[in-house]
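Lab meeting, item 3. Inverse folding demo.
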């Protein structure tokens, strides 16, 4: 894998992390539950730290780290606002949107780990981060299912 390919892969993950940070913060503004607000704020901080950890690797391989999220992430955050205005900013709606965002993040981390010839030290960092994304996804899904059970009773 060329240095340019490594930089592209890492920058994609930085953008993914930024999307997560901004998405979790957007959802944190709209939830009613203080537990969820704190969780989303914590997840936003974790995403910010992931982007900060990846940035020096981009520089190490001769690239310039991205400092913004993706266009699709921006659209997702816009969708959070549209959905909130249509169905209300319910905890359920925000959990649904967070899970959707985590699905996208998980797919990007998995794709990065499938990349040919990603250097082993970089692969180790990406694999560790992917486990965190999987943990976040599973927790959000569990909370979403719990919220659905409350509202359907």
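The presenter then showed the designed sequence:
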């Amino acid at each position: 894998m060329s240095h340019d390919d490594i930089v592209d892969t890492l920058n994609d993950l930085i953008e993914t992390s930024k999307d997560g940070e901004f998405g979790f913060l957007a959802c944190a503004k709209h939830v009613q539950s203080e537990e969820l607000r704190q969780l989303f704020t914590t997840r936003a901080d974790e995403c910010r730290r992931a982007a900060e950890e990846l940035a020096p690797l981009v520089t190490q391989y001769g690239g310039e780290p991205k400092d913004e999220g993706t266009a699709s992430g921006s659209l997702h955050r816009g969708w959070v606002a549209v959905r909130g205005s249509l169905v209300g900013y319910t905890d359920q709606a925000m959990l649904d949107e967070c899970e959707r965002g985590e699905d996208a993040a998980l797919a990007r981390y998995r794709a990065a780990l499938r990349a040919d010839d990603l250097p082993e030290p970089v692969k180790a960092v990406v694999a560790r981060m992917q486990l965190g994304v999987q943990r976040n996804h599973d927790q959000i899904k569990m909370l979403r299912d719990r919220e659905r059970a409350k509202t359907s009773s």
